[in-house]
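re the bet — no i am not wrong, look at it urself. input seq straight from the record:
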Amino acid sequence: MRISRAIYESLPWVYMLLGIAAIATSYLWREPLWAEALAVCGLVAIVLGLMLALRRRDYRIQQRRYGAELEDED
């Protein structure tokens, strides 16, 4: 399954924005159990978004540096 490039490129930012929204909601919503669960989910979403963005950046830097050699190693 392929998705469009615009959606693919925006996914890390969407994950981070959802994480920030979840943390903000957990701060405003004073139900203890749900607030903690939202905060944890928000933190996980932020970390996953950052991890995805950094892995893509590193891959692109390596690909630029070494060319097509990375794709030939299958």
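see?? The chain has a mean pLDDT of 90. told u. also Residues 32-66 form the longest helix (35 residues). so pay up
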